[in-house]
Amino acid sequence: MSLDKTETLSRFSCSRRYILGSVLGAVSLALVPFNAVAAVKEAPTLNTYLPQIEAGFDTLVDLQKTWNEKTEGLDGDVVRRILGTVGVKSPLFKIRKSFEGAWKIIAESPDASEETIERVNELYNSILDGISGVDFQLYSVNFTELRPTKEKLIENGKQALDSTVEMYAELVKLLKSSA
Less crowded by CB within 10 Å, the N or C end of the chain? Predict the structure, then answer.
């Protein structure tokens, strides 16, 4: 059985698209570092989220201690930067993600009671509401001209901060005992 020249070429030749696709695929794999291909991402644990949660707590405790100093200029943005609602440097910036991650781990833990799961959820949502409450009061300071109104907003912000720190302390204690 003999093959003529055109039949041989069609059976054994490759298209340019096939060759180019193979080369590009090989080049793209060669450019990816080996450890990135071989690495398996570890599942997060409670300890993955605790550092940011604890840093956020420490930040609020420090704000509580230095409240008068931070608010004496009647500039609400000073406090809002600390809260992470203005700028991105505060450990409280995107704290929701850490709270939700910690809650999810506790919720999926076979050792966690329903009461603990509910309490963590309740606390972290109340803390986020508290931070929003402080933020709202201090944001409003920037848009009022009357000094007595500014002072009242700052006082309201301090009250919201105090109750938020109290809830936050309970959450940190609960998370550490679950870790």
Answer: N
